[in-house]
C-alpha cells in the first residue's frame, strides 16, 4: 500500500502547496509509518462484510437459528451501538494515562473484539440466540472501542489540511483491500464445496483474527500520541454528548452528507444481486461484478486524494457525488443481457466509490479543530463517533427503503418469473435510488465554508493559544 501511494507523497512534496511544510511534526509523514497505522482498518473492515452478508445466512442454514431471531439481535445491536458509540467517544476524549488517550481504548477493544470474533467465526459450543447475541454485542463493543479512538487519533497525527486527506487515503486503500480479500474467499470456497458454511466462516474469521494481531502492533508503534490539550473536556452524560454533536452545524452537514452517501451505497449493495440475476438474466455474474467493483475501488483512493489536494476536500466530495449520479443514471441505458455496458459502469463505480466517504472523514478532524477553538474542548473522538449514527442509519434506510419499494412495485425474488413492469421497477429503484441519495449528499456538502485557508487560520489560532497556556519555565 505504501508503494501504491508513494507517487502521491512525491507529487505533494514537490508542489509546495499551502499548509504543507516539509520536515517537523506537521510535515510529510512517512508512507511506511502511515501504512502501518492504516493497517488497523484491515480487521475492522474485514469483519464488516461477513457480519452483514455471510454470518446471518450461515447461522440460519447451518446452525438452525431463525431469521426472525437473527434479525432481532442485529436490530438490537444497532440500537445499542447508537447509544454506546457517542459515550465511548466522549470517554476517550477525557482519558488521561501514561499510554495516551487513544491507545488504552484500542488495546482493550482489540481484546474484546478478538475474543468475540473467535466465538462468532469458530463456534464450538451449542449455537443459540443467546450465544449469538452475547458474542455479537461484545464484538461490536470492541469494534467501537477500537474504531472511534483510532479515527480520532488519525485526525491528531497531523494538523495539516491536506495531510489529513493523505491519512484517510491510506486507511481507505487498506479497508478496500481487506474487503476484497473477504469477498474472494467465499468465491473460492464455493468452487470447492459451496455447502460448507463452517469453512467459509472459519476462513473469513482467520483473516479477521490474524490481521488484528499483526495490525495492532504496527498501528500502536507507527506514531506517538500527541499530548492531550491542557483544557479538559467537561464530563458529558449521553444526552449532553448528543446535544453537543447536534449543536454543531458544520458537523451536522458532514453527517447528513455521509448519511446520504451510505444510503445510496446501501441501496446499490442490497439490490445488485437481484438486478444482475433477475433483470439482467446473468446470475453467474452477480458475485463477480460486486468483486470487480471493489478491485477498482482499491486504486481509487490515491486518485481521489490527488483531486482533493488540488481542489479541496469538500469540492472533491461534491465531484465524486456528481460522478456517481451520472454512473447510476447510466444504468437506465442497460438492457437485459447487455453485459459490456454493465461492466463499464461497474468499473466506473469502483473508481468513484468511497470518494465521499474518504473526504468526509478527513473533514471531521477539521471540524473538531474549529470546535476546540470556539469552545476550548477537544471532542474529536466524540465527533468521529457520530459517524456510527450516519453509517448505521444509512444502512437501515437503504434496507428499509429499497426492499419494500421494489416489493410494492411487484418484484418477487422467489417468483419463477417477474413481469416486465416489476423488473422495470427494480431497475428504476436500483438506478434512481442511489442517484438521488448522492445528489442529496452533494447538496449538503456544497459550499462548505471550512476550506484550506480557513483551516490554516484555525490551526494558527490553536497553536498560539496552546503556546500561551504552557506553564512558564
From TrEMBL:
<keyword id="KW-0813">Transport</keyword>
<protein>
    <submittedName>
        <fullName>MFS transporter</fullName>
    </submittedName>
</protein>
<feature type="transmembrane region" description="Helical">
    <location>
        <begin position="30"/>
        <end position="51"/>
    </location>
</feature>
<feature type="transmembrane region" description="Helical">
    <location>
        <begin position="426"/>
        <end position="450"/>
    </location>
</feature>
<dbReference type="InterPro" id="IPR039672">
    <property type="entry name" value="MFS_2"/>
</dbReference>
<feature type="compositionally biased region" description="Polar residues">
    <location>
        <begin position="1"/>
        <end position="10"/>
    </location>
</feature>
<dbReference type="Pfam" id="PF13347">
    <property type="entry name" value="MFS_2"/>
</dbReference>
<dbReference type="GO" id="GO:0008643">
    <property type="term" value="P:carbohydrate transport"/>
</dbReference>
<feature type="transmembrane region" description="Helical">
    <location>
        <begin position="381"/>
        <end position="406"/>
    </location>
</feature>
<feature type="transmembrane region" description="Helical">
    <location>
        <begin position="285"/>
        <end position="304"/>
    </location>
</feature>
<feature type="transmembrane region" description="Helical">
    <location>
        <begin position="316"/>
        <end position="335"/>
    </location>
</feature>
<feature type="transmembrane region" description="Helical">
    <location>
        <begin position="63"/>
        <end position="84"/>
    </location>
</feature>
<dbReference type="InterPro" id="IPR018043">
    <property type="entry name" value="Na/Gal_symport_CS"/>
</dbReference>
<feature type="region of interest" description="Disordered">
    <location>
        <begin position="1"/>
        <end position="27"/>
    </location>
</feature>
<comment type="similarity">
    <text>Belongs to the sodium:galactoside symporter (TC 2.A.2) family.</text>
</comment>
<dbReference type="GO" id="GO:0005886">
    <property type="term" value="C:plasma membrane"/>
</dbReference>
<keyword id="KW-1133">Transmembrane helix</keyword>
<dbReference type="GO" id="GO:0015293">
    <property type="term" value="F:symporter activity"/>
</dbReference>
<keyword id="KW-0812">Transmembrane</keyword>
<feature type="transmembrane region" description="Helical">
    <location>
        <begin position="201"/>
        <end position="220"/>
    </location>
</feature>
<feature type="transmembrane region" description="Helical">
    <location>
        <begin position="165"/>
        <end position="189"/>
    </location>
</feature>
<keyword id="KW-0472">Membrane</keyword>
<keyword id="KW-1003">Cell membrane</keyword>
<dbReference type="InterPro" id="IPR036259">
    <property type="entry name" value="MFS_trans_sf"/>
</dbReference>
<dbReference type="GO" id="GO:0006814">
    <property type="term" value="P:sodium ion transport"/>
</dbReference>
<feature type="transmembrane region" description="Helical">
    <location>
        <begin position="105"/>
        <end position="125"/>
    </location>
</feature>
<feature type="transmembrane region" description="Helical">
    <location>
        <begin position="131"/>
        <end position="153"/>
    </location>
</feature>
Amino acid at each position: 500500500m505504501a508503494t501504491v501511494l508513494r507517487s502521491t507523497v512525491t507529487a505533494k512534496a514537490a508542489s509546495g502547496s499551502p499548509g504543507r511544510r516539509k520536515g517537523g511534526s506537521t510535515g510529510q509523514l512517512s508512507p511506511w509509518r502511515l501504512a502501518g497505522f492504516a493497517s488497523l482498518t484491515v480487521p475492522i473492515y474485514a469483519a464488516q462484510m461477513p457480519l452483514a452478508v455471510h454470518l446471518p445466512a450461515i447461522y440460519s442454514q447451518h446452525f438452525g437459528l431463525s431469521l426472525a431471531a437473527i434479525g432481532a439481535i442485529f436490530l438490537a445491536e444497532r440500537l445499542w451501538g447508537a447509544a454506546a458509540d457517542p459515550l465511548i467517544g466522549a470517554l476517550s476524549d477525557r482519558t488521561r494515562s501514561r499510554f495516551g488517550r487513544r491507545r488504552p481504548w484500542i488495546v482493550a477493544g482489540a481484546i474484546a473484539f478478538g475474543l468475540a470474533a473467535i466465538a462468532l467465526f469458530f463456534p464450538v459450543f451449542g449455537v443459540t440466540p443467546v450465544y449469538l447475541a452475547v458474542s455479537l454485542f461484545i464484538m461490536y463493543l470492541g469494534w467501537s472501542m477500537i474504531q472511534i479512538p483510532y479515527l480520532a487519533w488519525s485526525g491528531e497525527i497531523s494538523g495539516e489540511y491536506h495531510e489529513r486527506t493523505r491519512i484517510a487515503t491510506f486507511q481507505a486503500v487498506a479497508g478496500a483491500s481487506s474487503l476484497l480479500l473477504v469477498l474472494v474467499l467465499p468465491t473460492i470456497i464455493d468452487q470447492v464445496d459451496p455447502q460448507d458454511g463452517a469453512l467459509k466462516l472459519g476462513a473469513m474469521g482467520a483473516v479477521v483474527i490474524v490481521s488484528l494481531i499483526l495490525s495492532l502492533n504496527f498501528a500502536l508503534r507507527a506514531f506517538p500520541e500527541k499530548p492531550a490539550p491542557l483544557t479538559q473536556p467537561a464530563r458529558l452524560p449521553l444526552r449532553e454528548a448528543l446535544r453537543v454533536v447536534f449543536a454543531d452545524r458544520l458537523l451536522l452537514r458532514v453527517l447528513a452528507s455521509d448519511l446520504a452517501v451510505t444510503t445510496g451505497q446501501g441501496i446499490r449493495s442490497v439490490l445488485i444481486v437481484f438486478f444482475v440475476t433477475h433483470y439482467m438474466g446473468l446470475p453467474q455474474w452477480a458475485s463477480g461484478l460486486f468483486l470487480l467493483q471493489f478491485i477498482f475501488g482499491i486504486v481509487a483512493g490515491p486518485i481521489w486524494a490527488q483531486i482533493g489536494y488540488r481542489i479541496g476536500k469538500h469540492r472533491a466530495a461534491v465531484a465524486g457525488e456528481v460522478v456517481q449520479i451520472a454512473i447510476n443514471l447510466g444504468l437506465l441505458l442497460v438492457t437485459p443481457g447487455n453485459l459490456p455496458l454493465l461492466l463499464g459502469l461497474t468499473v466506473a463505480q469502483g473508481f468513484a466509490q468511497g470518494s465521499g466517504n474518504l473526504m468526509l472523514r478527513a473533514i471531521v478532524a477539521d471540524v473538531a479543530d474549529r470546535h476546540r477553538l470556539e469552545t476550548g474542548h477537544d471532542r474529536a473522538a466524540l465527533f468521529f463517533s457520530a459517524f456510527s449514527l450516519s453509517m448505521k442509519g444509512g444502512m437501515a434506510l437503504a434496507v428499509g427503503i429499497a426492499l419494500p419499494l421494489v416489493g410494492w412495485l411487484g418484484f418477487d425474488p422467489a417468483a419463477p418469473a417477474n413481469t416486465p413492469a416489476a423488473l422495470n421497477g427494480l431497475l428504476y429503484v436500483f438506478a434512481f435510488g442511489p442517484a438521488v441519495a448522492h445528489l442529496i449528499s452533494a447538496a449538503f456538502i456544497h459550499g462548505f465554508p471550512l476550506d484550506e485557508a480557513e483551516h490554516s487560520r484555525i490551526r494558527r489560532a490553536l497553536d498560539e493559544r496552546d503556546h500561551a497556556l504552557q506553564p512558564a519555565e
